[in-house]
């Protein structure tokens, strides 16, 4: 068989004699091109450079370049100094002992003044770390630590800074490749004091810093940021990451909502409403994003802590418009096995099989800290938990801030 990119901009796979199309991207992009990005994603661009379709093969937060996702945390030590640790994934999806990837002396950063996120911001295929920083004088800055392989990071790169107008506490931060150019960007849901809401996009530059923001999705009423739990991923398969949210209404209804991106990296002003329920407790669910079934399009998973103490991971898949449905239980466990507030969950392809998995830092009541992974099966359900690295002393779970693409976990 042969892969061909036609004059009309359709990526096709044809059989040996060229007479039968075995597969096609179904794109119309005359004058465009098919691009294999450094980060490993095959993307179809139109003549204007806007992404139309993607294979969904990008490996997120791979800090050593081995094709497997890794886990990182920002650690706030008791003496005041700070470090970024990288827990490099092994072939089975477990984790090695952490690499001390970067450190800074006491007094340079306050962990509580940071909204951290991860992504490949310079498009070199290695995961990076970034943060919005809220200074004591009211300024807000954007800082990047570029990954340089082996789980190590370069020193801080300062790009955008605001000295008047942005309120750090009103910013909810989410990262993803919103314009499909092969570099992850950052979007901020901003909850204004007058009750209006707006999405701002900071496009990543070639050096891993960020350009000045521009705004897109805007609502003057009807949205409450504190009632939303966000995630990012390419839910409609067009090569650009989108924003998703679990919304908890005052009526008790919960709903999954998608905010698709536009070619410039902004967000469409029409949100896509999907699955809803009146039987869920919004506070008992946390939202996570990944391609758990390996079909090239990201899914959502909710870790749900039931009132009787048992826990389950519930999955949702999206259609071509990014609308979520198909509620499926991916994994469950009896009461007493896990306590959600002792977990810091990050998704990624930790075993390198092309399907995203769940992993967590877990803090036990006796002071132990452990990494645990739920690898995904071919159908998107999850295997039994795999326990790997463990520390019996010297680590404080509350000082470990796991770094994800969205929701700024504690």
Question: How does this model look, in words?
Answer:
With 410 residues, the protein is mostly beta strands. Helices cover 0% and strands 45% of the residues. The strands form 8 sheets. A 4-stranded antiparallel sheet has the order 9-8-7-30, with no helix packed on it. Strand 27 and strand 28 form a beta hairpin. The chain is globular. The N and C termini lie far apart (49 Å).
Annotate the secondary structure layout.
Layout (H helix, E strand, L loop, with lengths): L1 E4 L5 E4 L6 E4 L8 E4 L5 E4 L5 E4 L16 E6 L5 E6 L11 E6 L9 E6 L8 E7 L5 E10 L2 E11 L8 E6 L8 E7 L5 E6 L11 E6 L8 E6 L8 E7 L5 E6 L12 E6 L7 E6 L8 E7 L5 E8 L5 E10 L9 E6 L8 E7 L5 E6 L11 E6 L8 E3 L8
